[in-house]
Specification:
Layout (H helix, E strand, L loop, with lengths): L8 H21 L10 H14 L10 E6 L9 E6 L6 H21 L13 E4 L2 E4 L11
Antiparallel strand pairs: 1-2, 3-4
Helix pairs in contact: 2-3
Amino acid sequence: MHTPTSPTLLPLLRAACAAIVLLATSACGSPPAQDAAPAPGNAGLLAQIQAEAGNAACDSTQQCQTIAIGAKACGGPERYLAWSSKENDGKKLKALVQAHAEASRKQQQADGMMSTCSIVTDPGATCQAGRCVLQKSGLGGSSAM
């Protein structure tokens, strides 16, 4: 037996169903906090960091360094960046990275963000085809910063 639905009730039912579907899909599809996009204020700092690191030109692996980027909510960096000491002393790069990490921590506190607390280890850097690149995971390495 079919019961007629009131014309004023139908839009409310549709809105409620849409809200439930939206809530369910957003909860299931949310990326982990450590994979979230950088805070809008940090995007400019990240761009400056990448510009300062440049193309990381190198003649040998001894010129290749790594530097920790960002900050996870429970501590440690989000990732590492390879850079070269061939044309860069790293002072400005280090200052930009510190400012970026501090801004990330403040944003995470303000947003109440959490992370997996997984440890991101320094992969080290090597010179390949005249450019410093991060080594593949598991090869190890050290950072000058």
